[in-house]
Amino acid sequence: MRVLLGQDGSRVDTAGAPITVRPDGDLQLAGWAARVDWRAYASPDIDTAPTLAYRDADGTLCRLARWTWVRGERLRDGGWAFFYDAAGRPSGYAAYDARFGKGRQAPLQRSDAACLLRDAAGHVTRFVPAVCGEAADGDVRYVRDEAGTLLRAIDHRPTGQAHTVVEFGSDGKQKRRLTLASVRGVMVSGQGNPAFVMPGQTRERVMVWQEEGGNAVETGIPQEPWRIVRLDAGFAQDDPGAQSWDPAWQTVIVSGASDATGRIKPDPVASRQVSDALREHPGRVFWYVDGSTRFLLVPSLAPQVWAACVDAENVAPGACAPAGRR
User: Fold this and answer.
1) Which of 277, 297, 120, 270 is nearest to 205 (CA)?
2) How far apart, in whole angstroms, are the C-alpha atoms of residue 141 and residue 179?
3) Which domain of life is it from (predicted)?
4) Which pLDDT band, with edges at 50, 70 and 90, does 319 fall under?
């Protein structure tokens, strides 16, 4: 880890990239880079510094060059280039790394890059993981209303398919994260790859309950009792005393037993009861597939809601909310 001189004379650890991506897609110096006294590393005549800073004629930081020592020889081992648009706003960056073999320096290779596209007001509309003008595998698209308020960030990386959406509140802070089940590796009660709203911080195993129906779980244990319950008021989700099934603090919504093959499939009436409970008591409905194994149930998004949510042309504030809750 390199240590550079801070503006207050302190030692600054330089772990990580010198630039970070803000929630709204714009770029800014990382915390450590903002604390470094770059004046101490501005002269190309310095032959011992681990990092050198280069600025353009206007004084704007445009490049950081990183050096290391290999068998007594000072070699370039990477760096960053920063790009700006005509208005002086960040328009992208590129990171480079070198590989060494037998004490000789190999050509620098690009390891990361980004290009920012902006609207007429200067707001970032797309974050493309490539140098501007080059093709990229997916991007992040930022949706704003007519007043410029950030509504959603839609992630298409790396396949080009939208898979995660971050919703923002009027205060600019993240409100909800919606994603496809396959992205998070969570279980689905049935088939398919539905989208769902990520619950807040939880240690629980999550299972997506399909609002469109077809919910089923294969346990492999015949005739095993199961139940879907609601955690009673007064008990926190992560309460150590409420982890196992106990009628003293959990109310049964539906229950039954697996069939002869170990399959659990709630009937349509039971499924509607569970869906109603999920709407009325979010984050407090659990499926005990046996006496000690439980999953926190979260409802799936209807396909038409997910389609509206990932539509970057849809500037409705409630684009990701089911009809009737917008």
Assistant:
1) 297
2) 15
3) Bacteria
4) very high
Q: CA 8 → CA 19, 43, 48, 60, distances in Å?
A: 21, 20, 21, 21
With CA atoms as reference, report the closest residue to 146 among 120, 172, 167.
120
Largest alpha-carbon pair distance within the chain?
A: 79
* CA distances to 57, 266, 280 from 223, in Å: 77, 14, 30
Which residue ranges make up each domain of the chain?
3-136, 213-299
Give the mean model confidence (pLDDT) for residues 289-316.
92
Q: What is the pLDDT of residues 239-259, one digit of tens each?
A: 655 667 778 888 999 999 999
Cβ within 8 Å of residue 107, ≥6 positions away: 98
| Model pLDDT, residue 217 | 92
The DSSP result for 95-123, as a single string, is EEE--EETTEEPPPEEEEEEEEEE-TTS-
Residue 238 reports pLDDT greater than 70: no
Give the phi and the psi of residue 114 in degrees, each rounded to 5: -155, 150
Asked whether the beta carbons of 118 and 142 are under 8 A apart, the reply is no
**69-78, 134-143, 152-161, 218-227: range with lowest mean pLDDT:** 69-78
Element (H, E) at 152: strand 150-155
Location of structure tokens 């409905």: 285
Through-space distance between the first and last CA atoms of the chain, rounded to whole angstroms: 49
- Which stretches of 31-132 are DSSP H helices? 31-35
For the chain, the C-alpha Rg in angstroms (whole number) is 26
Instruction: Name, in order, each residue with C-beta under 8 angstroms of 52's C-beta and a sequence gap of 6 or more.
Output: 41, 42, 43, 44, 46, 64, 65, 67
- SS3 at position 164: strand
Residue 185 CA to residue 173 CA, distance in Å, equals 26
Give me the CATH topology for the region 3-136.
Answer: Lipocalin (2.40.128)
